[in-house]
Amino acid sequence: MATQKVSKINKAQKDSVFTLLFGDPEKLRDLYNAITNSNYGPDTQIEINTLNDALYMNRINDISFTIGKELVIL
Hints:
alpha+beta, three-stranded antiparallel β-sheet
């Protein structure tokens, strides 16, 4: 009988990789353009406003930013 190894996913580590990668406004712009089929250029202002430990039950939003006049929360 084979035994299966159960591994736990480290959500904090996955979150930190995601926020590190998309903590760069240029990469956020590329991501946003890709998922919305838009064409914001490098002159478009992006403001990152990710919340840390400020939401219900210590949850943290991964990435929150404004691009143009839109608020985006991933």
